[in-house]
């Protein structure tokens, strides 16, 4: 549900095309619709500018399908994260317009045109190839929320000339998402080159002392470069969402 949906209801009542009782049936599910196992926040796009996103990990396929059904009834564009391919196959049978981004484990159901709300480019940068799945989650999240998004993968500090050879892409960005595991130094390097916000995403990529991403997280939190914010380990979605909020300001 979005602002246009509410405007259409109010306009319909004003013009006499919608009965007051019918309008009340639609409005009474605000601010959420209780399915028993989930409370769908139909009001979120009005408050935050984006509809609720379905975090699918840990949910049953039946629950995911139930949430999608209710959101589709409101003509929402639907984004789901951490989706297993087997779950996508079940969704695809019911919603043929469902798209699956396998690397990022993202499903997208576009029920209406996506408005480009971004003021500039978001650039997603990775330290290595192993960081790409998390980067893809960030990329597709930001793109689905209405932004121009560009990729710059495998340009970590072990071969920093790869990053410097693409500095024009960095300088043209309005927001940068830096995704890296191991020691997580990429965000500091990027932050020292640009005059725009850098969102650092630590990944769980690395050997034993990486502690499943903790070393990269601590490096990013302790960065000496200014203008860096840090999301949780492997949280590509959070980075893409935050970048979109910044880019539409």
UniProtKB/TrEMBL annotation:
GO terms for molecular function: hydrolase activity. This is PurE domain-containing protein. Residues 120-249 form the PurE domain. Gene3D superfamilies: 3.40.50.1970. It comes from the Bacteria. It holds the Pfam family AIRC. It comes from Tepidibacter thalassicus DSM 15285. GO terms for biological process: 'de novo' IMP biosynthetic process. NCBIfam families: LarB (NF033503). InterPro entries: P2CMN_synthase_LarB (IPR039476), PurE_dom (IPR000031).
